[in-house]
């Protein structure tokens, strides 16, 4: 039986539905606030928005992820969370209007959303206990109770308000729901809004301080001097040209592409790394101090994300310090397949449940693959993997650059598919030879005369041998290469162009040391990285 049938005096209409929608919004606000507070007691990653957002990322097809990164860049996670909140707001309004007519069913609808959030939380790869369901569950109960109470104020008997003449105002009687407990509704809704704001703010503050031990542990880290330091960057490796990317990318400007809606904050004093699996004759577990006591190497290495479009920003160069990964594996008895090893895939697991698969042969072929503990002279920033991450020159990050790493398992490509492989990306992904025009930018309007065209080119672990520039459909002309640091870093380049008035298309291509010329065939980033030549259109005035 419908609620209005139980109370014949209630007359549904526009005001009633509007107040129901308001009730739904307040109930949603309260549910999220309470969930935020409970998540502070459980863990920030268990909050409903983060849990549902993570589940959405996992469920999204690869092209959708690629589209989000291409259009929103490193803000893709913020956009996702705002989108989830917007959807919740709309659903809350609709559910509130529904509850205005079907009180119990509306409150039950809130509980259903809580069940969905709880299920998303416990299904996350980094979830280890059913307590992760508590934030969504407790928040949903609070929201359902509030919605039930507020809607009840729309049906509870109330005395008509009299006018100064002692009679009920005709306009008020026509506009308001019959029997609306105005005073009770206003008091209940105002109190709920104020309490939710306080609880939500407190929960957010507690969640923000959740990683205080990790922050303190990072502040106490003193990186030892490397036994094998990086050689000084050669004079002339960095060109003094306005608009060109700096040779070393500052930590704050280094790209970040991952699936973590909440950046993991790991206490270095509690961090452990386990190495085990096929062909591991001596499984081992290492602490952070164990790594710092080992012989450290320091290297300049350029990283590239497989989601980097032609001419895109997801490439950066940094000075890394860490432990040779091949030495750790060798100590555990691991041999590469070329020497009879049983495992051909190294699966790295992050504290947030991410899995990345790297070819064992590449990790142990002599390149400077490392477990990095420092970046550009300081401990790794949390956003870039503190306390430890993998860095492997020459491979795209999705098969080599595991951040917040805590586990390494030796296995085979035939027996295990890591996270990205399950979603249609390649198993093996060497970085493709690429180049980019940094200046002039797209649609620039330089003056006629000498215009410096400049940018960067990369072919990690092969090295860049030549860069050429073409103006419109003219011949390819060789650019001047900056000095090379190592074959694992990008190279800057420049070309003085005698610009004439009018519209022009500028195109760049690179040739790596193996003789491979950057192809003009355009491909998508999926499954193994974009290809093609970067062009910009300018108008010379």
What does this 3D model show about the protein?
The relative contact order is 0.10. The chain has a five-stranded mixed β-sheet with strand order 2-1-10-5-6. 33% of the residues lie in helices and 21% in strands. The radius of gyration is 30 Å and the shape is globular. The protein has 541 residues and is of the alpha+beta class. It has 13 helices and 18 strands.
Please summarize what this structure is.
With 541 residues, the chain is of the alpha+beta class. The chain contains 13 helices and 18 strands.
**Percent in helix:** 25-40%
Shape verdict? globular
Q: Main β-sheet: number of strands, strand sense, barrel status?
A: 5 strands, mixed
Work out the helix count: 13
* Portion in strands: 15-25%
Q: Gyration radius, to the nearest Å?
A: 30 Å
Question: What is the structural class?
Answer: alpha+beta
Distance between the termini: 76 Å
Strand order of the largest sheet: 2-1-10-5-6
Name the poorly predicted regions.
1-10, 160-177
Beta strand count: 18
Helix and strand topology:
Blueprint: H1 3-6, H2 14-42, H3 48-59, H4 62-72, H5 76-101, H6 103-122, H7 134-153, H8 170-175, H9 182-208, H10 212-219, E1 272-277, E2 284-287, H11 288-292, E3 296-304, E4 315-324, H12 325-331, E5 345-350, E6 355-359, H13 360-363, E7 370-375, E8 378-379, E9 389-391, E10 405-411, E11 434-439, E12 449-458, E13 464-471, E14 477-478, E15 480-481, E16 491-499, E17 502-512, E18 535-540
Helix pairs in contact: 2-5, 2-7, 2-9, 3-5, 3-6, 5-6, 6-7, 7-9
């Amino acid at each position: 039986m419908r609620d209005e049938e139980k109370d014949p005096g209630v007359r549904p209409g526009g005001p009633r539905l509007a107040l129901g929608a308001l009730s739904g919004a307040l109930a949603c606000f309260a549910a999220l606030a309470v969930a935020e507070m409970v998540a502070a007691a459980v863990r920030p990653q268990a909050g409903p928005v983060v849990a549902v957002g993570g589940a959405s990322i996992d469920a999204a097809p690869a092209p959708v992820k690629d589209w989000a990164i291409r259009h929103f860049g490193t803000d893709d996670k913020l956009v996702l969370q705002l989108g989830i909140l917007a959807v919740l707001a709309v659903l809350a309004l609709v559910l509130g209007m529904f509850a205005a007519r079907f009180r119990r069913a509306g409150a039950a609808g809130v509980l259903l959303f809580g069940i969905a959030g709880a299920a998303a939380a416990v299904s996350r790869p980094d979830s280890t206990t059913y307590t992760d369901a508590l934030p969504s569950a407790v928040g949903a109960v609070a929201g359902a109770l509030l919605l039930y109470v507020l809607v009840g104020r729309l049906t509870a008997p109330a005395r008509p308000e009299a006018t100064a003449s002692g009679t009920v105002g005709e306009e008020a009687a026509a506009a308001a729901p019959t029997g609306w407990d105005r005073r009770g509704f206003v008091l209940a809704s105002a109190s709920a809004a104020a309490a939710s704001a306080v609880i939500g703010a407190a929960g957010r503050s507690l969640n923000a301080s959740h990683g205080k031990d990790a922050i303190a542990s990072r502040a106490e880290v003193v990186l030892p001097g490397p036994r094998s330091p990086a050689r000084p960057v050669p004079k002339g490796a960095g060109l003094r040209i306005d608009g060109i990317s700096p040779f070393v990318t500052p930590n704050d400007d280094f790209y970040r592409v991952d699936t973590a809606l909440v950046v993991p904050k790991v206490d270095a004093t509690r961090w452990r790394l386990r190495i085990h699996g096929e062909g591991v004759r001596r499984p081992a577990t290492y602490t952070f101090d164990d790594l710092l006591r080992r012989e450290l190497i320091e290297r300049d290495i350029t990283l590239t994300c497989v989601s980097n479009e032609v001419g895109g920003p997801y490439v950066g160069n940094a000075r890394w310090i860490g432990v040779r990964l091949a030495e750790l594996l060798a100590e555990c008895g691991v041999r590469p397949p070329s020497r009879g090893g049983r495992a051909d895939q190294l699966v790295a697991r992050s504290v947030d449940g991410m899995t990345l698969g790297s070819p064992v042969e590449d990790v142990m072929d002599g390149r400077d693959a490392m477990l990095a503990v420092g970046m550009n002279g300081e401990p790794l920033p949390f956003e870039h993997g503190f306390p430890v991450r993998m860095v492997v020159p020459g491979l795209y990050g999705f098969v080599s650059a595991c951040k917040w790493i805590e586990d390494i398992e030796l296995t085979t490509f035939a027996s295990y598919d890591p996270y990205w492989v399950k979603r249609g990306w390649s198993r093996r992904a060497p970085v493709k030879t690429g180049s980019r025009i940094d200046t002039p930018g797209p649609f620039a309007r330089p003056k006629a005369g000498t215009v410096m065209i400049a940018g960067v080119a990369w072919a990690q672990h092969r090295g860049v041998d030549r860069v050429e520039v073409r103006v419109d459909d003219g011949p390819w002309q060789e650019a001047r290469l900056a000095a090379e640091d190592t074959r694992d870093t990008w190279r800057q380049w420049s070309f003085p162009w005698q610009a004439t008035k009018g519209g022009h298309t500028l195109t760049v291509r690179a040739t790596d040391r193996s003789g491979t010329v950057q192809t003009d065939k355009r491909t998508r980033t999926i499954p193994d990285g974009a290809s093609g030549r970067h062009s910009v259109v300018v108008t010379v005035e």
